[in-house]
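Researcher: Here's a chain I'd like modeled. Treat it as a single chain, no partners, no ligands.
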Amino acid sequence: MAKINLLPWRAERRKQRQNEFFGLVGTCAVLAILVAFGAVQYFDGLVSNQQQRNQLLEREIAALKAKTAEIEQLEKKKSDLLARKQVIEQLQANRSQMVHLFDDLVRTLPDGVRLTSVKQVGSQLTLEGLTQSNARVSSYMRNIEASGWMSRPDLTIIEAKGDDRALPFRFSLSVQVTRPVGEGEEDEFLEASGGQL
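Model: Modeled as a single isolated chain. Structure tokens:
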């Protein structure tokens, strides 16, 4: 006799397949959640690592800015000190200049010429005086040119306005004050030896 299965096997298979499907969906959902959690953790780690790097860089940048500011202050102090040193050296070098200059003024002055005024502005010297003739002024200019402490004489004016009959001409000269070559070494030698040769 034929066996007839009257049990609802299709419903049971459908239920078994649904259970398998829901189990598979649940497993996939759990795996997806785990993957998402792992990705979030990974990217959070990357962001945290980058933030730590940024903080380190910010600290280093702040330290470098402080050092740069300190270096700028030191550079300013250095330039100030160098400027002061240069002024002191210039004053030291020009200390004996006036003595030499007045000595040269007397030596270069020819007979028949008398100075009435001497003015100095920087390295420019203005000499005014009275003379017997134009030739005496020319001679004076040649003497100045040959001098070691004065150079480039420039005759500004010469005119016959003197009240003195012996010195009827009034003149004005512009002269550059210079330093003879080798004069600086001589001053340094004198200072080093205590002013004694």
